[in-house]
Specification:
By secondary structure, the chain is an alpha+beta fold. It is built from six helices and 18 strands. About 25% of the residues lie in helices and about 45% in strands. It has a 16-stranded antiparallel barrel with strand order 1-2-3-4-5-6-7-8-9-10-11-12-13-16-17-18. Strands 14-15 form a two-stranded parallel sheet.
Length: about 500
């Protein structure tokens, strides 16, 4: 096609050229006109005939040249078409047929299999010789094996107004807690807490938890705060108030229920939208308030059931039931009216508890707003021996607390707690050898209540301050008192203010 275009252009130029060349300029036309006037008509006619014959000859030559070019173009096109056809036949001949392609692929796969089988059949030592040796500095990774260590500080300053009390105020660095945590392997975690006070240091908790021992079952071994209700599990620096509830301290002691043994936590199958958990613990009966007469150290048994669910996307409900049983077998009794001796008889001690919590926390503003209501109740039934007549007797005591707490801003919380405790009445409760107080007192109708508002400011996730006021009163126990507390809690390390 480009050749045909070129020939067309040349032809147009040739056809136009004679007329262009024949055209004269105005000057030449004038000269010719002047010459024609001097020539005769015969001379002019002969000259025009000669020019016309000459032009005819030139035109014939150009046409002949065009015909030759056309023949050459046709020959070239035929030659190109033949060459293209020849190349197509060669390509088709070189292309393998489908059976040949499948055979080649099968041969390649067979060769790969043979090579893999030969490699797998080599001895392990022979194959290791070809592996690249990589040298690593083992000391650089030892730091990952170190446990995580945190330190918490709990300092309380108070002022007390109570009749017949001389010590009105004090600065008490209540606890410097050393907390250690480490994952021993992908399945096992170790935790320990060592409280240090101004006068002593002791082992608070040290336990190992094996996760996934069975499907939905975890196993804990060691010394730990037991799962009686909710707040007994918490450390003091993780409480929402300055101290444990009055009823808990009266029944279990100031430090709560903390013993050594084994705990099994089982996440039960859900019921609808409700999640359930069952905890069974076997521990040494070493609590001084409940098992002080357990000379054989018979283990105590605890069973805790927890049920929780989301009522709405912003509201959470949890309730639980707890039962603890243990034994005592040695009792101080009076012989002959004035001599004390030990009476050995195995008797039971039971403690039941119930807890209830509702938390409202808007999903979009959970860091700035919430409202929490928590309530727990405790009931003690303890068999004992009357030291005067050596008959079996029973001590019953109960108590409860309830508090409401809300978050005003991201850093400010306020709350209000009410406590109530009612001991039993026993004539021999005041004897120093028996030491039943505060489970029982000598006066009838005894009880004690306490109310206390508080406000907490979180300066940061690692430092918080609390101001709390408590007013306590009652009948047959302590005298009325008013106490103002100022508490400072800090944490240094990765775990901040963990509750347990």
């Amino acid at each position: 096609m480009p050749l045909r275009l070129c020939l067309s252009i040349v032809l147009c130029l040739v056809l136009v050229a004679p007329h262009g060349f024949a055209a004269e300029s105005p000057g030449q036309a004038a000269t010719s006109t002047a010459g024609e006037k001097t020539r005769s008509p015969e001379a002019n006619s002969e000259e025009q005939v000669g020019e016309t014959e000459h032009e005819q000859d030139e035109l014939e030559q150009v046409k002949e040249m065009l015909r030759q070019l056309q023949r050459q173009i046709d020959e070239m096109e035929q030659q190109h078409a033949a060459e293209i056809e020849k190349l197509k036949r060669e390509i088709e001949a070189a292309r393998p047929t489908e059976p040949e392609t499948e055979a080649a692929e099968q041969d390649e796969l067979r060769m790969l299999r043979e090579a893999a089988e030969a490699e797998a059949g080599k001895p392990q030592e022979e194959r290791r010789e070809t592996e690249e040796t990589v040298f690593k500095a083992g000391s650089l990774s030892l730091q990952a094996l170190n446990p995580e260590i945190s330190v918490t500080g709990d300092m309380v300053t108070f002022y007390r107004d109570q009749e017949d009390t001389r010590k009105r105020s004090d600065f008490d660095f209540r606890n410097l807690g050393i907390h250690i945590e480490s994952y021993l392997d992908p399945y096992t975690r170790f935790k320990a807490a060592v409280p240090v006070t101004e006068s002593f240091a002791k082992l608070g908790e040290a336990y190992m938890t094996r996760f996934g021992l069975l499907p939905d079952v975890n196993l804990t071994l060691g010394k730990f705060r037991q799962q009686f209700g909710v707040v007994n599990r918490w450390h003091k620096h993780g409480l929402d108030q300055v101290d444990f509830p009055l009823a808990l301290r009266s029944i279990f002691g100031d430090g709560g229920l903390n013993q050594t043994g084994v705990s099994v936590d089982w996440t039960l199958p859900p019921i609808g939208q409700t999640t359930q958990q069952l905890t069974f613990q076997v521990t040494n009966g070493e609590n001084d308030r409940l098992f002080d007469e357990n000379s054989r150290n018979v283990p105590s048994l605890l069973l805790h059931y927890k049920n929780f669910r989301d009522l709405t996307k912003d509201t959470y409900l949890e309730f639980g039931l707890t039962n603890l049983v243990g034994w005592n077998d040695e009792w101080p009794v009076l012989a002959d009216g004035d001599t004390w001796r030990a009476e050995r008889e195995r008797l039971e001690t039971w403690v039941w508890g119930g807890d209830f919590t509702v938390l409202w926390e808007p999903t979009e503003r959970m860091r700035y707003r919430n409202l929490e209501w928590r309530t727990e109740a405790y009931y003690l039934h303890r068999d004992t021996i009357d030291p005067y007549d050596l008959d079996e007797d029973t001590v019953n005591a109960w108590g409860a607390y309830s508090y409401v707490q809300t978050k005003l801003t991201r850093t400010w919380d306020i709350g209000f707690r009410c406590d109530y405790y009612e001991p039993d009445r026993k004539q021999y409760a005041g004897l120093p050898q028996v030491s039943l107080a505060p489970l029982a007192v000598t006066s009838g109708g005894a009880y004690r209540w306490q109310v206390g508002p508080y406000v907490t400011w979180f300066q940061s996730p690692f430092v918080k301050f609390r101001l709390e006021y408590n007013h306590g009163d009652g009948v047959g126990m302590q005298k009325a008192e008013d106490v103002v507390y100022f508490q400072m809690i800090f944490s240094a390390g990765p775990h901040k203010h963990e509750r347990y």
